[in-house]
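can u do me a favor
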């Protein structure tokens, strides 16, 4: 007869392991970027901005994960509204933090924030793609 092997599905708690891997990778990359920017940059402002950008990116990702897990337990009609509303809240909260830091002259330039946020998002994407390629995620 033919091969009737059944592929196992995702293991319970696999999402928590993936979140941990993403968080660790984010911390390592952002820490290395912070140290490099502190050594290379002529002012501490860029390093501080990079650090804050990475921190906002990591918090944003954790907030997104929380929203996703809550919507998974909701009825379909309520989940879409909840996710959309929280997307805008997250978006405007991030914008308000960045605007406040630049407007109140906590940081001289928004570029370090943007670079830090981009690095954080990029490292999370790399970690997710790697997990998918390893077969840890459907």
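np, heres the sequence
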């Amino acid at each position: 007869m033919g091969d009737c092997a059944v592929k196992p599905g995702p293991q319970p708690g696999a999402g928590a392991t993936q979140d941990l891997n993403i968080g660790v990778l984010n911390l390592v990359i952002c820490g290395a970027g912070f140290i490099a920017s502190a050594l290379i940059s002529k002012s501490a402002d860029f390093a501080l901005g990079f650090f804050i950008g990475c921190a906002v990116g990591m918090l944003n990702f954790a907030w997104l994960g929380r929203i996703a897990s809550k919507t998974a337990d909701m009825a379909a009609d309520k989940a879409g509204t909840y996710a959309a509303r929280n997307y805008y809240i997250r978006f405007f909260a991030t914008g308000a933090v960045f605007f406040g830091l630049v407007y109140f002259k906590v940081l001289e330039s928004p570029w370090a924030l943007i670079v830090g946020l981009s690095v954080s998002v990029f490292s999370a994407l790399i970690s997710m793609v790697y997990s998918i390629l390893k077969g840890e995620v459907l």
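Residues 44-72 form the longest helix (29 residues). hope that helps!!
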